Amino acid sequence: MTDSTLLFHLSDIHFGLEHNRALDWVAGEIASRKPAAVLITGDLTMRARQREFDAARDWILSLPAPVTVEVGNHDLPYFNPIERFFDPYKRFRGMESVVEKELDLPGIAVVPLKTAARMQPRLDWSKGWVSDAALAKCLSAIDALPAGKKVLVTAHHPLVEVGTKGTALTHGGTRALAELAKRNVAAVLTGHVHDPFDLRQDTANGPVRMIGAGTLSQRIRSTPQSFNELRFEPDGSLHAEARNLQDVPTEAMKIDDVPEDAMPPRQPGEPVAPVNAVPRVDPPVH
Fold first, then answer.
1. Spatial contact of 174 and 231, defined as CB atoms under 8 Å apart
2. Could you give the CA distance from residue 270 to residue 201 in angstroms, rounded to a whole number?
């Protein structure tokens, strides 16, 4: 590989409450920059209504790049429990080929990890859950890759808390990170919390980089609409940059520290430390 591989990481578009200027801006960037792939880490819709999925499908399939899509908690049927339990992907019709799709790109592969669950033994089903089966499927796909192949893992929920206003509280996330640390994983890409981040999480098996994309919807939390531009370099390094639609100073888009009380219980010697997370500020689109 002699050239870097450009990837766009989007998340939490929430059709039904989408931000049209942000979507037009991102579509224009994809058309002009021609990334090798677009990685969407879940929450395509607001309430999993069919009209929202139809709009998501039309927009995603219009993009001139390979796409893989994770399933977010908002993408599971809200108002039809029978469908939620027995046919939760029914409304993805017409774009099944891009859902949880593995990608083999120059120098790097993309492997999905499911974190959205149709039901959980707790009241808040919006939070993350890594089942034994989901983790085994992800690890098996990674282990089947050629030796030395770098991997990006795509999931919806951050596997541990990352200090953002939104929380993931992902069951099984610490265990999943420890397993991923044994493998050639360049980063775990997620969404859900609607704010970008770039952190390094230590595990019993070594560190894992965690990169989160913001939202392209009207449901902003601490930062405006954004997406991540990722560049995988020939030397194996991965550069991440948050691309922000609004005129917000760089410092306002950075997470300087992760508060201790935001973290789930960790084993001794597993601190969290931020790594470089310097976003690019883009002018408003008119």
1. no
2. 8
Q: What strands lie across the sheet with 238-244, from one edge to the other?
A: 67-69, 37-40, 5-10, 226-232, 238-244, 280-281
pLDDT at position 285 is 44
Q: pTM for the full model?
A: 0.86
pLDDT at 248 over 70: no
Q: Which residues of 129-153 are buried (b: 16+ CB within 10 A; e: fewer)?
A: bbeeebbebbbebbeebeeeebbbb
Cβ–Cβ under 8 Å, residues 174 and 184: no
Strand partners, 209: 200
Cα–Cα distances in angstroms (integers) from residue 252 to residues 245, 249, 260, in the given order: 13, 6, 21
C-beta atoms surrounding 92 within 10 Å? 21
Judged against a pLDDT cut of 90, whether residue 280 lies above it is answered with no
Helix axes 132-143, 173-180, angle to 10 degrees: 10
Residue 242 pLDDT = 94
How far is the C-alpha of 159 from the C-alpha of 122, rounded, in Å? Answer: 17
pLDDT in tens, 250-269: 555 544 443 333 333 333 33
Q: Which CATH superfamily is 5-281 part of?
A: Metallo-dependent phosphatases (3.60.21.10)
Q: Bridge-partner residues for 189, per DSSP?
A: 154, 211
Decide if 114 contacts 69 (C-beta within 8 A): no
Half-sphere exposure (Cβ direction) of 182: Cα atoms closer than 13 Å:
9
Which pLDDT value is given to residue 2?
A: 59
Show the DSSP H helices in the chain as ranges: 20-33, 50-61, 81-86, 132-143, 173-180
Residue 195 CA from chain centroid, whole number: 11
